[in-house]
Amino acid sequence: MSDSPIIGGGAMLQPTPFHRRTAALNLVNAWERWQGHTTVTTFLSPEDEYFATRTAASLYDVSPMLKYRIAGPDAEAMLDRLMTRDVTKLKPGRALYGPWCDGRGRVIEEGTLFRESAASFRLNAAEPQLFWLEDCAYGFDVTVEEVTDAIAGLALQGPLAKRVLEDIGLGEAARLPFFGLGRFGFEGGEIEISRTGFTGDLGFELWIAPERAETLWDRLMAVADRHYLRPMGSQALNTLRIEAGHILINVEYVGANHALRESQMRTPDDLGLGWAVDPKKPGYFNGRRAIEAERAAGGPRRRLVGLDIEGRKPAHAAYLYAGRREVGQVTSACWSPVLKRNIALATVEAGYAEPGRKLKADVYYVKEVTQGRVEAAATVVEPRFYQPAHRRG
Amino acid sequence: MKRYDAIVVGAGHNGLTAAAYLARAGLSVMVLERRDRIGGAAVSEERHAGFLYSSCSYVCSLLRAEIMRDLELSKHGLRIIPYENSATIARNGDSIAFFHDPAKTRRSIARHSRRDADAYAEFNRDIYRQCRMIRPLLLETPPDPTSVRLKDLKGLRKLQKAFAQLGEDGLAQAMQFWTMSCGDFLDRYFESDLLKGSLAGNSIIGTALGPYSPGSAYVLLHHVMGDLDGHVGAWGFAVGGMGAISQALAAAAQEHGAEIRTAAEVEQLIVRNGRVEGVALVGGEEVLGTRVVSNLDVKRTYLKLAPRKELPTDFLEAVESFKIRGSSGKLNIALDRLPEFPALRDEPLLKRGGILISESMEYLERGYDDWKNGQWSREPFLDITVPTHYDPTMAPPGKHYMSVFVQYVPPTLADGPWTPEKRDAFGKTVLDTIELYSPGFRDLILDCWVRTPWDLENEVGLTEGNIFHGELTLDQLLFNRPIPGYAQYRGPLGGLYMCGSSTHPGGGVMGAPGANAARELLHDAGVRRAA
Ligand SMILES: Cc1cc2nc3c(=O)[nH]c(=O)nc-3n(C[C@H](O)[C@H](O)[C@H](O)COP(=O)(O)OP(=O)(O)OC[C@H]3O[C@@H](n4cnc5c(N)ncnc54)[C@H](O)[C@@H]3O)c2cc1C
């Protein structure tokens, strides 16, 4: 320690409510920044953390996610105007995933909307949204409140996640339906649990008051060895989410409210989120006319696709060619340990985006101290590479 | 008698930049400086034993990296260290801080308004978009929109491309930036007074516009369009003070054979048959040159040095009405030790960066009212830095140098010109203001050098003490800077060029006017490529 008033002074990055616990287990001291918080990159072995998730269960601290509570008599109407999906069909005790757009149909972000009761919702986002939400709330009888710091979040994901919950006295939560949401008694208080996640596997997200976060962590870790339950860092999560075909903001696209270049913005159809646009719902929602116009004009100019790539070298940022024509670029790539396949998410000109289309990927890779380069065959496939049946079970 | 290929009048950083590029291209160059030292407003001076002051300019962001590379300024000793954060402190003990890490900035703003914290990300995006458009234009000669010469058409095409890549939203914002007041612009995003005050600071520095005067939004952009080490809008300190920039430029010029003479004030240009042939110094000595480059502002160049009768009357009228109004002052203070700022108690690291006193838009507008009334702001805007955090060589061990930039200060006062007594009273206003935010501050002062616009004019040669060599409003920018029709570093006299801050892209320690002027001269001289 230095007694200098300058060095090491002041509040800098914020610890999450689980920080003391994760810090004790972070054996390689691998940290990164996430929305102003220190979060774990890997505890010890990304492979072990990954396989725990695919074969048993893992814990991932999602507390830095931005959370907004939207409540009031008009909450449903306001959110229905915000989001492209039909929010009026969302029942209390359920969650939905979907995008929200600006007036020109460009995705601002996508996230999970939880309906906690008839007149109270929570929206989770990766980037600050308060400015937009408040503007959208104009004229509606609702309050919009950021509750990021008031709720600690822990993702419990993996095929054995239900057993873990049962083992800590949350058997009732284990029976939640896919995208279900509920409040349960836990250790003399309450916990909110949703059957949601980002890994494409069976899983839950646990939401609890920050002051009770460590209790939750301790209860879970006390049964860790009985279930091959492992704390996980962001590195393993990235492989999991690519396998699941989940897009990531600032990787697959830039939010319309933060993009410097219009060319980096995407419509829901560009991102393969057309299924999450509900043009049949009555009334206006932000972006409606632009999305309809794009559809009427023959659809998006480019599409997010999955790629199945020959060989073993992850095609990070690879340019894609059809013959000699450059038709797109990889946004995320990894070797999939569960599929034993070389996979990627990519943005491709619409005319080259149909499944089965053969492209060439220009893959650069590290060859000891030089860069190697191969041209690998890449086949367009559906981006949801890994969708185990037990996910919804 | 020797005839130089080029004579540069004035050894400000732009004159030195031009000289270095010209010499590098093989021209014989003579730089003539009125003062006993080089640098103009980019200068370091030891006034109090052991303390080196950045007497005028104090922080660096705008200096083009291209110039650093071309002229090998690091080889000549130049180091520029970005500082990571800045903070605005409020009288009630509160603060707002800005960091390179957007999440940290967000948290700081959120203490005042969560909504503003989110809006700040969008504000930044809009600023960056404009910076991306403007930045490539800085080291370009502004194209003449009325010309059909290939060079101008190419330039216009580039401008059009820059507009096109902005997109519809960006283009609308560009118009807003160039015409709107900073206040109106900020009101579109924010509600917090302290946040708006913090951001508006950049829109009033050096200008005779108030935060609600149309056009002031551009001044904000001018202050954030620089970049350091990949951080857009970041500012840094030059090791050895801002004079180190001029010293490195001079060393580069001399390495390539340029001569630099100080205490050599040019009294007039020698003009024959509409062409300059050299200059006459005070005392009568003549220095001959095929081309002359003036580092002085457009008024001094054409109204003081050039013979009026050789110039078109309409041109002279335009020069006379060029807006160049003084509005800034500066205190250089030697401190016995670091001052305490209770508002930064929880985050002492913030003391290393810029510290602003700028409570609200209202605060700034009232300060501007005083200026209009011929008084210095009774409650002034202050931009405080302590460069010795990063460069301890500027003060004896344990001691510190503090630079205090002050806005608004009129070039002459309602009750008559500046006097030493009025200068002291002005200094007292500033020190009293700092004392409000840092109780006990006065007791730490070892030396305090107060500079009014009058001092800046008389010592440094800045007309009215205007730090930019002319107001940065759209009517005086791009192909209108300094005079419509004469924006390409040339004027009506053959062989005479301008390279100072009154030319595109304007003031600040940027070097771009100097580099651009040199390129134009070399073009005329038929020198194709710089060595
Ligand atoms: C108080 C203050 C603070 C500032 N702060 C900053 C800052 O922090 N960051 C920033 O980027 N910019 C800042 N600026 C602006 C910046 O310093 C100037 O815009 C820039 O230095 C101007 O450079 P220049 O080479 O164009 O002209 P100048 O520096 O004005 O150079 C002109 C030179 O010509 C000489 N000269 C004048 N008349 C004659 C003559 N007849 N014969 C021979 N020589 C003559 C002068 O002595 C001078 O050396 C500040 C300016 C001031 C005054």
Automatic annotation (TrEMBL), chain A:
Pfam families: GCV_T, GCV_T_C
Annotated substrate binding sites: 205
Residue ranges constituting the Aminomethyltransferase C-terminal domain according to the UniProt record: 302-386
Alphabetical GO biological process terms: methylation
PANTHER family: AMINOMETHYLTRANSFERASE (PTHR43757), AMINOMETHYLTRANSFERASE, MITOCHONDRIAL (PTHR43757:SF2)
Keywords attached to this entry: Methyltransferase, Transferase
Domain named GCVT N-terminal: residues: 23-281
Organism: Tistlia consotensis USBA 355
UniProt name for this protein: Aminomethyltransferase
UniProt-listed InterPro entries: GcvT/YgfZ/DmdA, GcvT/YgfZ_C, GcvT_C, GCVT_N, TrmE/GcvT-like
Entry's Gene Ontology molecular function annotations: methyltransferase activity
Automatic annotation (TrEMBL), chain B:
Domain Amine oxidase: 164-512
Pfam families: Amino_oxidase, NAD_binding_8
GO molecular function: oxidoreductase activity
InterPro entries (alphabetical): Amino_oxidase, FAD/NAD-bd_sf
Assembly mode: Interacts with COX5B; this interaction may contribute to localize PYROXD2 to the inner face of the inner mitochondrial membrane.
Function: Probable oxidoreductase that may play a role as regulator of mitochondrial function.
Protein name as catalogued: Pyridine nucleotide-disulfide oxidoreductase domain-containing protein 2
